[in-house]
């Protein structure tokens, strides 16, 4: 399988591209404002069809959706609870005052992502976990080796958006956020309960594992040691 991480944009957001072996479809996750870098990566991949799946609707993860959706006739998938977050994109753009966000367009949604469901898209099988707190419809995509026996996955992986980061967790003071207790509770019950070797690929910064975050994340430690 092809698994690309493309960091970039004003908030150094991670966009992901996934493609199963022998598939002509790709999944583009969280296309931010690093359009050129994403296009560079796409130019190196053979594909006929694109599916855009978002972890959530914040501007740094959804700025590029409208552009890629229109250019590649892609379908756009996001949790229903992210509608108000997407609609706030344009006001968020003017609030941040970052020039590259000034022409933000709210993309049209094709399908709503359900939580706790298995999907097969372009030959890749994954399940969805709803982990709210940073935003109400924050979805994590979970791909296991067992679900994808022919994709040479070294470990199970989770693309976890802005729920948890290496050594940190998502902010709860942005559009749609709740509070730290809520977010940490949801991370603990939905993510930390998974296999320790599972690799977490966050919306910002480097990868980590469930085991490392359980042991050393100062925001999560209290739930286990306290
Ligand atoms: Zn976010
Ligand atoms: Zn973000």
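-> sequence recovered:
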């Amino acid at each position: 399988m092809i698994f690309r991480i493309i960091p970039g944009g004003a908030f150094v957001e991670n966009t992901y591209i996934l493609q199963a072996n022998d598939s002509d479809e790709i999944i583009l996750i969280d296309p931010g404002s690093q359009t050129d870098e994403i296009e560079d990566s796409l130019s190196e991949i053979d594909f006929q069809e694109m599916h855009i799946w978002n972890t959530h609707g914040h501007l740094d993860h959804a700025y590029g959706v409208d552009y890629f959706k229109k250019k590649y006739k892609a379908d756009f998938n996001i949790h229903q609870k992210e509608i108000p977050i997407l609609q706030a994109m344009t006001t968020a753009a003017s609030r941040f005052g970052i020039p590259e966000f000034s022409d933000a367009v709210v993309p049209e949604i094709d399908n709503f992502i359900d939580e706790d469901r298995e999907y097969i898209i372009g030959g890749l099988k994954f399940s969805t976990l709803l982990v709210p707190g940073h935003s109400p419809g924050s979805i994590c995509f979970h791909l296991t080796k067992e679900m994808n026996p022919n994709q040479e996955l070294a470990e199970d992986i989770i693309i976890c958006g802005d729920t948890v980061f290496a050594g940190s967790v998502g902010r709860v003071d942005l559009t749609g956020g709740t509070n730290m207790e809520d977010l940490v509770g949801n991370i603990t019950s939905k993510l930390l309960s998974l296999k320790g070797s599972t690799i977490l690929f966050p919306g910002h910064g480097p990868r980590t594992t469930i085991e490392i975050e359980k042991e050393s994340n100062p925001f999560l430690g209290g739930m286990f040691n306290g």
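The first helix runs from residue 35 to 43.
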